[in-house]
Amino acid sequence: MAAKQPPPLMKKHSQTDLVSRLKTRKILGVGGEDDDGEVHRSKISQVLGNEIKFAVREPLGLRVWQLVSAIMFSGVAIMALAFPDQLFDAIFEEESVSSKTPIRLYGGALLSIALILWNALYTAEKAIIRWSLLAEACYFAVQFLVTTVSLAESSRIATGAVLLLVSRALFILISIYYYYQVGRRPKKV
């Protein structure tokens, strides 16, 4: 007795057939709007429900601080790029700097940080917000240390530099505060 050969496997065309794919998604209940007007991309999102409850609870004033930081970094960057002499004179109360290149490079670095801060302002990702706050706090800490060493070496205390040191210390504290607040686990209700 000869064994009967099975029929050749037929390839299903449902992946390429748009109508068939839409029928399958409708049967699964995926892709359509629910009663709340929410469009589900998968059954998992339907089972889990609305993802708003999983969103980051932002501390009060976080977005304002991010906006102020982005504006501040952008403003100082543009001033360092366009008017390096005036920026140096405003901080250290000296007539002129020998080379404008380091101040312009400083402005370019600040502009790069400002772009990161502007993008972090529009995201809800917890990790991105925390990294931008940490980068900001590190920048302020380095600037605080460099300014302190520069003042100690020159043995001349300028009012602008002292004001800069006080403001940077305050900015470090604010950035670190928000960094830890965003990283906190929400309390169980």
UniProtKB/TrEMBL annotation:
Give the CC-aspect GO terms.
membrane
* InterPro entries associated with the record: TP53I11
Its signal peptide is none
- Identify the species of origin: Donacobius atricapilla
On the tree of life, the source organism's domain of life is Eukaryota
Protein known as? Tumor protein p53-inducible protein 11
What Pfam families is this protein classified in? p53-inducible11
Protein's UniProt keywords contain Transmembrane helix: yes
- Gene name, per UniProt, is Trp53i11
Query: What's in the keyword line of the UniProt record?
Result: Membrane, Phosphoprotein, Transmembrane, Transmembrane helix
Show the stretches that span the lipid bilayer: 64-83, 103-121, 133-151, 157-180
Query: What is the membrane topology listed in the Swiss-Prot or TrEMBL record?
Result: Multi-pass membrane protein
**Compartments (UniProt record):** Membrane
